[in-house]
Amino acid sequence: MTYPQWPGQLSDGLAAMSLSLSESQQQQLLAFLALLNKWNKAYNLTAVRDERVMVSRQLLDSLSILPWITTNHLLDVGAGGGLPGIPLAIVFPEKRFTLLDSNGKKTRFLNQCVLELGLSNVEVIHGRAEDCQPDQPFTQISSRAFTALENLVIWCGQLLASEGEFLAMKGQYPDDEVAALPAGWQVESSHSLKVPGADGERHLLIVTRAEQHR
What we know:
- It is a single chain.
- By secondary structure, this protein is of the alpha/beta class.
- The chain has helices at 6-16, 23-43, 54-63, 85-91, 104-117, 149-156, 175-179; strands at residues 73-77, 96-101, 122-126, 138-144, 160-170, 185-192, 203-209.
- Strands 3-2-1-4-5-7-6 form a seven-stranded mixed sheet, with helices on both faces.
- Helix 1 runs parallel beside helix 3.
- 36% of the residues are buried.
- Keywords: Cytoplasm, Methyltransferase, rRNA processing, S-adenosyl-L-methionine, Transferase.
- It comes from Marinobacter shengliensis.
- This is Ribosomal RNA small subunit methyltransferase G.
């Protein structure tokens, strides 16, 4: 079921973010949010349960990293309820998205989203990042509310191409996590994200391998 305020909140939010999406893409985003809301009641996919803030906290927040998506095949680790992977896949139908999660309930939900929304550019993998063996490493790996940066690079470093980058979505700037990054990794850049209707800070940290030769 779609909350009646959602379409207006989405179109207003997209306008505030200077994003132009087709009517069908907006409908797909809202259909995804309705699925997330419905399944969340039984599957505990996300902590956000207030329908009044779901467009901002789920959809617009996911789309806030659009300017930094440069790869043709993105891996979303700890994909959970499909954030940011599913909204990004709707906006970028020409790109491929692999959504990885070790929780069977969450991957069942993600497969249902792929089926109901007709997302032919999305592959769902049920498993742990450490056990994943892709045909080739990814140039970009996104992560939202998944784990600390230290764990991210340790668990998923082997999945990242040598020149690749992690797109780590965080709330407040995580000084302690940055300080705990293992040797050989660095925060190449940090970006403050503007999400219409969202309280609190949001940051995107681009994490890469430190240059071997200076």
